[in-house]
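Notebook p. 47: complex prediction with NAP.
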Amino acid sequence: MLIDPKTAEKATVEKVLRLQWWTDKLLTFTTTRPPGYSFAAGQYARLGLRDANGLVWRAYSMVSSPGQEFLEFYGVLVPNGLFTTQMKALKEGDGVLVEKQCYGFMTPDRFTDGEDLWMIATGTGVGPFISMLREPYVWEKFRNLILVHGVRHADEFPYRDELASYCREAPFGTNAPLRLVRSVTRDERPAPDSLTLNGRVTTLFENGALEKAADLPVTEAASRFMMCGNPEMIDDMRKLLHGRGMRPVRRALPGHFVTENYW
Ligand code: NAP
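Predicted complex, structure tokens below:
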């Protein structure tokens, strides 16, 4: 991919290494990692692809961890989306622009205390949590890690094998395995290899089903929350957490939750 000097100042061209389609709409792709590219698990990159009218840029969370030598991204095809129309046509060896700077504040080091990390995701918002689960310090920092993932249909759960291995055994010699709670909203079929609930993650939080499924109570002292995905889910979760006496982490003030809207 040829780029003009102004674009070259802010971005590098990276090569697509691997593409994995989970369904006809959900895609994981890996690219080369720019030399010196530094980020924290939970942050996102801005990626650029060329279409007939020029460059189209979108934010994508890193799924790879800072310790991995490639970059990995997970996305959904948006109907008529300018970026994802180009993404659909990607092939191994193609070029993707990656901005030199990375972004975002939904990182586990924002919490100064707490013992249980609840990672609440909808749809492709699960991506940054995969990155965190690949990081030893996240397992060391918290006593329990709980991943809650809500999707529309049972075939929309990616990274099954990797997550199943974290549920069997904690990696990096840490103590507690992952507690994984999955939920579908538009599908009666349960996912075959996990505890799968029906209903929105917000409803399941409110009625106590998440705590029951994770076998862990939510308390102001121990529980810390990260939410990523549908912006309305994040708003609703925020209200529910406020109702339980919790508050967001602010720059200088410790708190109970941090969030990242996905679009
Ligand atoms: P989604 O519509 O957000 O659905 C994922 C899950 O979140 C569903 O189970 C849904 O439940 C649930 N949900 C929605 N609103 C909620 C709320 N207020 N509280 C709790 N849960 C809530 O996302 P998706 O299925 O992954 O993607 C669908 C479409 O979203 C895409 O085709 C695309 O148009 C858009 N999207 C856009 C971008 C972007 O970057 N532009 C990124 C991701 C997704 P229900 O079934 O009850 O709604």
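Notes: Residues 41 and 132 are 5 Å apart (CA to CA). The pocket of NAP is lined by residues 76, 78-79, 122-124, 150-152, 185-186, 200-202, 229-230, 232-233, 236, 262-263 (CB under 6 Å).
Next step: compare against the earlier run before touching the bench.
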